[in-house]
Amino acid sequence: MLEQRIFYGGRVKIINMRGKIRIGMDISQLAHTGGVATYTRNLAEQLQKLQDLEMIFFYSSLRKPYKGELKNVKKYRLPPTLFEMLFNRWRNVGIEKFIGSVDIFHSSDWTQPPSKAKKITTYHDVVPLKYPQWSHPKIVSVHKRRLWWVEREIDCVIAVSEATKKDLLEVSNIPEEKIVVIYEGPTGNFKPQPEERLRNFKKKYGLPEKFILSIGGIGERRNLNRIKEASRDYNLVIAGVTLPWLGTDELELFYGSAQVLLYPSLYEGFGLPILDSFACGVPVITSSVSSMPEVGGDAAVYVDPLDIEDIKKKLKTVMGDKKMKEVLIKKGFERIKCFSWEKTAEQTYLVYKKTLKNA
């Protein structure tokens, strides 16, 4: 890389002579499954395509080596607990020690490394801070330590929904002017699948011909007890419970095989399953709280997630009304056009530029 080193204020500053912004990005969440990993993978892939950025990726996992296709990945085989202590507690080593000099470091949701660069982070939700009873005490402690540093050092926070921004303002001292909302995109380039592929998928996993799909998770957040009670008259399949978590290559078959997505979660920072269902041509019943109405718009049916009778009533209506299903599917196809990872990356790039401009 073509660069120039100059002395400024007693420090060595590296100038990228090609005019590209050097972005360091933590992608360690790719070692796990779930929404944060989906965000990290898709955003990193799109940012790497932008000509004005030079991406340097930081990845650390003791058990899962990086096997993706991103370029310029600095890989370390160390446990995440070590980096949590190193970055959130001791803070005597900067991220530059691992990835070199960068203009901006974009952190994930687990650690907040010290850095001489401008600092940006993404908040996907604030579950450990707002609902600590749903998380292990150690996880709550990690997020509290990280937030302490975010409040003091961060230059910009990306929230994945207006609901998450609102929650951040409630549980933190981050100034509102430092929080920018940038929506996510669907998990993959999903679309409705041919009936033969859907039949083969259901046969492979022993799924019923007709079923309602719900999304599992740890703790009470996904509202599974009320879901089970409200859907007793139907076949219920729960992702992560009835079936193990599936890879992206089979996920669109899983969604596409369902009659409806029943997703009355008690809280979501964004709600990717809503977009994924829209893309696969599946009607959505979801909660009227948190971020779900933001994502679903007028293309979903909303329920009070605490009201079993409301869930049961809306489910019966959607399942028994073929015309209503068709309308919801059509609206879902229109709604999904509002979200894409290309748009997410472009808006993130603009945040990078604005952050450097304000330096």
TrEMBL record:
The protein here is known as Glycosyltransferase subfamily 4-like N-terminal domain-containing protein
A single BP term in Gene Ontology: lipopolysaccharide biosynthetic process
GO molecular function annotation:
glycosyltransferase activity
**Protein keywords:** Transferase
Chain coiled-coil ranges:
none
InterPro entries named among the record's database cross-references: Glyco_trans_4-like_N (IPR028098)
Recorded hits in SUPFAM superfamilies, A to Z, give: UDP-Glycosyltransferase/glycogen phosphorylase
